[in-house]
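Problem statement: downstream parser choked on a complex file, so we are re-checking the raw output for the magnesium ion run. The parser issue turned out to be on our end (a line-ending mismatch), but while we're here, posting the original submission so the record is complete.
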Amino acid sequence: MIYCVDLDGTLISNDMSVTSFFETILKKPQLIPACYRWHHEGGRARLKYNIGEIYNVDISRLKFNLELIDYLMELAENPDNSIYLVSGSTQSIVSKIASYFSFFKEGFGSSIDVNLTGKNKLALIKKYFGDSDVCYIGNARVDLKVWEGTHSGIVVSNCGSFISSAKKVTRIEKVFKGRFAHLNQEYISNKG
Ligand SMILES: [Mg+2]
């Protein structure tokens, strides 16, 4: 089975576009005029992209869904499974997070002109995986559009009505609570 995993709110607690923007301008306030210009010229996509190019993801500061990580590690032990990170966050951030975890084969993120959420995310999944069965793991209303076109799903949510909405559009295999914590130090140091 192919598993496609969303990032913001699913694998990690926060929205990387927001986190990377605020952390960057707090560190480098001289970039504020450039941020206005990027947003003016190319909207949110250009701003997200340019911030992503200069932002350094610090994995040790992010909070992860540890139960989901354990589950993905288990899935990866079966050679018939392949797992991808597919996120609306910008490509450079998605690549950095995907390459941190050995269970991800690859990471797909937003580009300067494609916001990889909802129907764009489904289109990418169809393009790469064709008619293969895909299980999509997500957490938000925008993910309903992805579940509508995928074989099955896993939901990360504490909200009963949202879980019911997801069950109306695809077969939901599993539900994880939206519970997030830092990776333990041992895990981080093992990664060198
Ligand atoms: Mg999400």
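For whoever reads this later: The mean pLDDT is 94.
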